[in-house]
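Data deposition worksheet. Section B asks for the primary sequence of the deposited chain exactly as it was used as input, without tags or linkers unless they were present during the calculation. Section C holds the resulting structure in token form. Section D is free text for depositor observations; keep each observation to a single sentence. Incomplete worksheets are returned to the depositor.
Section A, Depositor: J.P.
Section B:
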Amino acid sequence: MSQTQEVPLNGAYYGPSIPPAQQPRPKRSRGCCVLSTFLKVMISIIVVLGIAALIFWLVVRPTEVKVYVVGAELKQFNLTNGNTLNYDLSMNITVRNPNRRIGLYYDQLDAIASYNRERFGWANLPRFYQGHKNTTDLHADFNGQHLMLLNTFEFNQDKNNGYFYIDVKLYSRIRFKIGAIKTRRVKPDIECHLRIPLVSNGTFSMFETTRCDVDF
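Section C:
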């Protein structure tokens, strides 16, 4: 009886090739997929908003409002009892809307006058709507008395020079109208740094038109 010959395990093998053992693929976590999807959505939203903002700017072409003080008359500005300021100041202001497609609602407009960083006067200006490419003329009056702690030397020096540096800040609440759409109110900073000559002995010195700083 014949016996079957066994092939040694450590001998050469000439059969078909044996594929290498496959390593199990690591499973992607669910959190990673969610984060990747979220980032893609956010990037898409940002791109769409950027394109919309660009189209809006190209169509509307928003331009900054321009504010000027075109005239100012300081009839009285003196100290009594060392710390009481007596003042009588009037000024003419122009507000220019240079936009072709944007109207402006001025829901509030107040003017505060200051000297040497100390407030002394307040004036309420009328509310109004300003159409496209329109200029509105305003008038503000400040008169009365106010207790102030001032450097009398600097005050007298300005008085001898014949003019005073007075700051007027306009506090406003504005809405924009674009077609039928009205935006919510914004509060721009409008500051006017003025060099106003003092009217003395009936004489009047020319005031130079001054552009105010507007910051939205």
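Section D:
Residues 66-215 form a domain with the Immunoglobulin-like fold (CATH 2.60.40).
The two ends are 108 Å apart (CA to CA).
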